[in-house]
Amino acid sequence: MGKGMLIDLTKCMGCRGCQVACKQWNNLQAVPTEFSAEFTNPPVRSAYTWTTIEFLTTEVDGKTLSTFTKQQCMHCEHPACESVCIAAAIKKTDAGPVTIDYDKCIGCRYCQVACPFGVPKYQYDKVTPKMQKCTMCADRIEAGLETACAATCPSGAIKFGERSDLLKMARERIAKGNGKYIDHIYGEEEAGGTAVLYLSGVPLDLTKLKQGVTEEAVPNFTWKAMKQLPALLGVVGLSSLGLMAYSSRRNAVAEAEAAAGKGAGKSKGGKQHD
Amino acid sequence: MTSFGEYRLTKGKSLLWLLFAAAIVVSLWRLFVGLGASTNLSDTTPWGLWKAWDVIVTVPLGASGFTMAFVRYMLKDERYEQIMRRSVIWAAIMYVSMGARLAFDIGIPWRIVNPLIFWGNIHSALFEVAWCVALYLIVLLVENGPRLTERIERPWAHKLEHAIHWVGPGFVLFGVLLSSMHQSSLGTLYMIAGKRLDALWYHPWLNYIYLLTAVAAGLSVTILLEAVSNKLYKTPFQTKLLSKLGAAVGVALGIAFVWRLASMFIEGTFGEVFRSDISGYLWWAEMLIGYVMPLVILARGAWRNDRRFLTWAAVGVVYGMISLRMNVVFTGMNEALGASGYWPSIAEWVSSIGWTAGTLVVFTFLAEKLPGVIGDRVKKV
Predict the structure, then answer these.
(1) Domains of chain B
(2) Chain A CB contacts of B122 below 8 Å
(3) What predicted TM-score, i.e. pTM, was given to this entire model?
(4) pLDDT: which is higher, B8 or A50
(5) Contacts of residue B206 in chain A, CB cutoff 8 Å?
(6) Residue A268 confidence (pLDDT) above 70
């Protein structure tokens, strides 16, 4: 099993150090920002901002509650983006990250339609654009390092490691937390399982984690149709051939009848052979 | 018999040629400024007018080709020869035009054939569409080949014509298979969204709905081409032949209609149709104009055999086909993608309108130039 990250939202203090580390390691250019109602900054993730802390301030029982949700690619175990990629440019690597090969990508942007988390971002400002997203620092993993965001996180909210180990750790934390955590590991089942896992102290609708994500592996949605293609071909092919044989016979009989009936052999204008 | 060798450049055709020229200029300009600068696409609206109209709608508009080739060669009905010729030429124009337009929609246009040549992904419905369309272009060349060889009075052209005649039915079958695959796979594209797609357009087997509506729309386009030819070239409207196609349209459309409603009942989402917002209205328009109206007409023999009624039914079916595809791309996915206020840019409009105008005017050109496409005129124009 591959690597992953466990993000403990109860430990996150919203410092956005991870955002800076991500930009630094991946050489991502700064983007102009703007004021918004929330503290999320930049307000949206883009081809140049792969991770953000999304702030959500709500009122619960008369008290103000602020949550900080680190968002980036979830690195699905069965990625929708990989399955739809026409150019086979997107790959789930054995090490865990889902990566994009820029030399193969043609820019069809189907992955943007397919991703249940809305992760891939395109360089719409470039003449020869690239599809961009968090790589889980695949290059750092190859060099035996942990991800840049995990390495920089001062409160230890981001843990990097084997996904299976992180799942165990998450279960332990829930068990020993005395109600500190809700009993749900986000990413264990979502989208058929993701390499990035989350623990939360508050119900998920008080965080910015995407709600209502399917628990089925998303590639199955299209594969169930595609695997029927041989059967479709069989049915259409055989019925076409059958109709062809029937029609030939019908035409031959009609011609023979016409010849026998009229003697002189004047067949109908419409049924002549060319 | 009148000769149709000359091309008459009327005012209307000149306008269409101009629009086409404008579209080509815009497409070339797009190569230099990039996708983002020429369109209003964004991360929340990754697929816009060019993908929806110029690809996903244009392909089933070309479904006249495989459906009529099926009627002519599988049902071996020679009375449809001339109607088939027209439908197959129309299909070739739609597919070639679609391929060209698709190149400008992808981020790096010159990489368009890379997935087919160097690498690919059989799990991708888009990859499958690309392959089937590429192969179907060859089929369309073979199916239209005789139109070209008939004009060349040379021994080699005659030999080629005979060869095509001999392999023709095989290619027709190949074309029917390829079309069944890619017409349905265009529906598979959006199945990846699962229930993120709006309940009004979600269907567990969207691929078969797309195939059925493509068959219905393809035959309807054939009917409309006859109606246009009737107006433009004073050729007869062969009501008897076309009403039989109309019956087939009714069957395919009826299955799609019942299946769509049944699946909404099974999913328990039928209540959504009473939503009073723009998506609800669009759904009702699609159902009433695209399904109910044509089905009512086509179910009645007397109406089916009436030129006007049959033409209106065909218009409805094509509207329903277009509506389904546009709604799946835009209305049905807006919420899931977090899209807000996408409206195509001027360049997107000029390109889509111009390329569409191009298909129409190139069709008139080929129909008038190639033999046996227009058919006998009732009276000289």
Answers:
(1) 11-369 (1.20.1630.10)
(2) 226
(3) 0.93
(4) A50
(5) 225
(6) no
